[in-house]
Amino acid sequence: MTGGTMPQYPHDVGPYEIRPAEHRHLDGARSVMLDTFYRDFGHGYRPDWHRDVVDLDGTYLAPEQHALFVATKGDEVVGTTAVRAGGPKSPPHPGFLAQRYPDDTTAQLFRVYVRPEHRRCGLARALVGLAIDFVTQQPHYQALYLHTDPRVDGAESFWRSLATPIHDPRDGGDDIYQTVHFEITLPGRPR
User: Reduced to 3 states, what is the DSSP secondary structure of residue 153?
Assistant: First the structure.
């Protein structure tokens, strides 16, 4: 890890542990992600959008600037959050967002999912907190970007409680996916 030391893990949230993923967590994390694609999003696995899920190790554990965090209850993975280098791609996202969030200085949050029966326990907030800590420790990151589908129950209100909206296509934009884009302020980084 460059740029400082990471806090000690795991963190306890009630009966749950919140921690960086290890190899033993990958099958459980993949299951949470795939179940979310099918159950919550209704479109299932899409190779063009979800290729990282096939290779969680190579995408999140191997690169030093990437990370995967999990919430576990006993041996079961019940929640995930991931960080990857790179900003939004245009297309499908508006070009001005790709310019505002260049790949070399932007971290992006992905796969912030919690199984339905474990929601409302503070897990997503705790997982995102670890992701923010991780990104803050990486000196080359100047921004933490994410996007969400406001049609997913609770997603937009959750992100509005943690992040600043940057672009909402419902305000007259042309994003056919209805994706709302956010930035999380990084401590000590000017924007």
Answer: coil
CA distances in angstroms from 180 to 55, 56, 147, 175, listed in the order given: 27, 25, 6, 9
- The helix (run of H) or strand (run of E) holding residue 36 is helix 26-39
Task: Tell me the whole-structure pTM to 2 decimals.
Answer: 0.90
Dig out the tokens for 181 from the structure: 């884009």
Token duo for residue 96 = 């001005």
Report the pLDDT value the prediction gives residue 76, as an integer from 0 to 100. 98
Question: Which of 75, 72, 158 is closest to 115 using CA atoms?
Answer: 72
The percentage of the chain sitting over the pLDDT mark of 70, rounded to a whole number, equals 91
What amino acid occupies position 104? D
What angle, 0 to 180 degrees and rounded to 10, lies between the N-to-C axes of helices 26-39 and 47-54?
A: 160
Tokens for 185?
A: 């302020």
**Token duo for residue 179:** 């994706």
pLDDT score of 177: 65
Show the CA angle centred on residue 19, arms to residues 104 and 64, nearest 5°.
30
Amino acid identity, position 23: H
Residue 55 is classified by DSSP as T
121-147 burial string, b = 16+ CB within 10 Å, else e? bebbebbbbbbbebbbbbeebbbbbbb
